[in-house]
Amino acid sequence: MECCIGRLVCDKLGLSRRSSHKIRKTYGTTLLDAKVDDALVAKQMGHKDVATTRKLYYFCNASEDSKRQQVAQAITYG
Questions:
Q1: pLDDT digits (tens, 9 = 90+) for 5-58
Q2: Which of 7, 23, 27, 67 has the fewest CB atoms within 10 Å, measured from its CB?
Q3: Burial level of 57, CB count in 10 A (0-12/13-18/19+)?
Q4: Residue 47 dihedral angles phi and psi, to the nearest 5°
Q5: Which stretches of 2-48 are DSSP H helices?
């Protein structure tokens, strides 16, 4: 059944097919990458502890150029 749900969702959204587990991971990671509050993401994902969300969903989907800009901005003084 899980496989069918993932297929239906992806087909409806015009995305390449993936499992519902991957859809869930993408959703959580996208929220965190968009700077949605960790506690809200934890609640959306059904986690009782924000640490669980941070452990499982903190992946950076930013482009390599964006990552370099973030690092440069963080270490720039003055």
A1: 777 878 887 878 878 888 888 888 888 888 899 999 999 999 999 999 888 887
A2: 67
A3: buried
A4: -90, 140
A5: 2-13, 20-33, 38-45
Spell out a b/e string for 11-46, using b for 16 or more CB atoms within 10 Å of the CB, else e. eeeeeeeeebeebebeebbebbeeeeebeebbeebe
Q: Which amino acid is at 17?
A: R
Cα separation of 2 and 8, whole Å? 10
At position 52, the amino acid (one-letter code) is: T
Give me the amino acid identity at 18: R
